[in-house]
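Now for our target.
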Amino acid sequence: MRTGGAGIIVTMTHGGEDNYLLCKRQKGKGVVYAGMWSIPSGGIEEGEDPDKAAVREFFEETQIKIPIDKITLVEVDDSKYNRDFYIFHYHSDKYFEPTLDFEHTDWGWFSHKEIPENTTPQIKHLTRYGTLT
């Protein structure tokens, strides 16, 4: 049984500003935020710590390993399904390209000004000022 959700906002500095890695959710019946841009994220398994769930989900969806000791909790959002959604941050010092799983159809690095209009509310909220710090 899933007890909530967790995801990681990954940033990389380019041209003097943070760029955010976003992935486009597939469309389909029952897909949460279908067709919208978001961060790699997913459910927290029973007994699993939110930070471990975030790192696990990020790897499952991108094939990129994020060091758990380098992520920081940014926000806990309880606005969807009355379950806590833990949003962590990781700043990468290098560019990388994810290998997407079946849950996503596209990905991109976006500056604050380039965040797509159809981005999930939590991520749009956190990226509105162009920095997470």
